[in-house]
C-alpha cells in the first residue's frame, strides 16, 4: 500500500491522526509527519502497524500495493549504535536540520556537521548519574533565583546556529534566556555534561570537545561511570575556529580530572556550586555488570 492509498483509506474511514494513533500504537507525531510529507523514509514497522488498522485482516487491499522496501532507508545493523547512520536521501556530511526533523519521533540521533549518529538507549547507571547531576544543578540555580536554566536530555541544541548540527547533551545549563525557544536551545549552552559509555566515549572526548569549545560552551564535563572519573574542560577564552575573535592566539583549554569522591566545583559559578557523586556509590554498585 502506498502512502497516497493510506491517506485515501484514512479519509474514507473518517479517522483523525489521533484516532489512528490510538488504534495502531504509532505516535501521533509520527503520523503527522508521515502524512504531511515531512518523513520521507518511514519505518517498515510503522507502515505495517498503520496498514493493519486501515486494512484489517481479510479485507482486500489495493492491487497496486507498493513494496515497503521502496520507502525505507538503507538497512543499518540493529546492533550498531553511535556510529554514523546511513540514510538514502543524502550522503553523510550533507544532512541538515530539515532531514533531522523529518525522522520518525522514535528514532534518536544526533546531527554533527551534516553526519547522522544513531544513539542507543542509555543504561541505568548513565541515567542515574545524569539525573543526579541535573537535580543538584537545578536546585542550586533555583535556590539563588538566578536567570539560568538547567536541562536534561533529550533536549535539542542547535549548537552552531546553523542547519548542520543538532546535539542532545545529557545535562546542560543555559544562562542566556534568549537562546531558549519552544523547540530547542539555539546556540551554545554555558555548561554541558556528557555521561560516557563504551559506544560514545571516543566521540564525547574528541569530536564534541572541539565542537563545544568552538561554539562557545564555557565548561564541559565528561563523566566516566566505570572508572568513576570526571574530566572537566574549561573553555573560557578558547577557540581555534577560523574567524573567531580569539582564534589568533587562543588560550589553551584547561582540563582537570576528578574522582567521584571529590566535591567537584562548577566553574561557571566560581565554585559556589559543587557536585559529589560519592553518594551514588551504593546505588551504582547495584547495577554492576
Secondary structure elements and their pairing?
Layout: H1 3-13, H2 17-24, H3 28-36, H4 44-54, H5 97-102, E1 109-112, E2 115-118, H6 124-144, E3 149-152, E4 157-158, E5 171-174, E6 185-186, E7 191-195, H7 201-205, H8 207-215, E8 219-224, E9 229-234, E10 254-259, E11 264-265, E12 274-275, H9 281-285
Parallel strand pairs: 4-6, 7-8
Antiparallel strand pairs: 1-2, 3-5, 5-7, 8-9, 9-10, 11-12
Describe the structure in your own words:
The protein is α+β, with helices and mostly antiparallel strands. It folds into two domains: 1-71, lambda repressor-like DNA-binding domains (434 Repressor (Amino-terminal Domain), Orthogonal Bundle), CATH 1.10.260; 124-285, tt1808, chain A, CATH 3.90.1570. Helices cover 29% and strands 16% of the residues. The chain contains nine helices and twelve strands. It has helices at 3-13, 17-24, 28-36, 44-54, 97-102, 124-144, 201-205, 207-215, 281-285, and strands at 109-112, 115-118, 149-152, 157-158, 171-174, 185-186, 191-195, 219-224, 229-234, 254-259, 264-265, 274-275. The strands form four sheets. A six-stranded mixed beta sheet has the order 3-5-7-8-9-10, with helices on one face. Strands 1-2 form a two-stranded antiparallel ribbon. The chain is elongated, with a radius of gyration of 22 Å. Residues 62-81 and 241-247 have low confidence and may be disordered.
Amino acid at each position: 500500500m502506498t502512502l497516497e492509498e493510506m491517506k485515501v483509506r484514512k479519509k474514507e474511514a473518517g479517522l483523525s491522526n489521533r484516532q489512528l494513533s490510538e488504534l495502531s500504537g504509532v505516535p501521533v507525531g509520527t503520523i503527522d509527519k508521515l502524512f504531511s510529507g515531512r518523513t520521507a523514509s518511514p519505518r517498515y514497522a510503522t507502515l505495517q502497524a498503520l496498514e493493519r488498522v486501515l486494512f484489517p485482516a481479510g479485507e482486500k487491499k489495493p492491487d497496486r500495493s507498493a513494496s515497503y522496501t521502496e520507502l525505507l532507508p538503507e538497512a543499518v545493523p540493529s546492533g550498531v549504535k553511535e556510529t554514523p547512520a546511513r540514510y538514502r536521501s543524502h550522503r553523510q556530511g550533507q544532512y541538515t536540520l530539515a532531514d533531522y526533523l523529518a525522522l520518525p519521533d522514535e528514532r534518536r540521533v544526533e546531527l554533527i556537521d551534516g553526519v547522522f549518529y544513531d544513539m542507543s538507549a542509555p543504561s541505568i547507571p548513565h541515567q542515574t548519574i545524569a539525573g543526579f547531576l541535573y537535580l543538584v544543578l537545578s536546585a542550586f540555580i533555583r535556590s539563588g533565583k538566578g536567570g539560568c536554566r538547567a536541562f536534561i536530555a533529550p533536549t535539542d541544541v542547535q549548537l552552531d546556529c546553523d542547519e548542520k548540527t543538532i546535539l542532545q547533551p545529557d545535562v546542560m545549563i543555559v544562562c542566556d534566556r534568549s537562546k531558549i525557544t519552544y523547540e530547542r536551545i539555539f546556540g551554545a549552552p554555558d555548561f554541558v555534561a556528557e555521561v560516557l559509555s563504551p559506544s560514545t566515549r571516543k566521540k564525547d572526548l574528541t569530536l564534541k570537545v572541539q565542537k563545544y569549545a568552538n561554539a562557545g560552551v564555557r565548561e564541559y564535563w565528561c563523566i566516566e561511570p566505570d572508572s568513576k572519573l570526571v574530566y572537566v574542560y574549561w573553555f573560557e577564552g578558547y577557540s581555534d575556529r577560523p574567524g573567531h575573535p580569539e582564534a589568533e592566539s587562543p588560550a589553551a583549554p584547561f582540563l582537570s580530572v576528578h574522582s567521584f569522591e571529590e566535591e567537584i566545583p562548577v566553574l561557571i559559578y566560581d565554585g559556589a556550586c559543587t557536585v559529589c557523586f560519592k553518594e551514588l556509590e551504593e546505588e551504582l554498585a547495584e547495577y554492576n555488570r
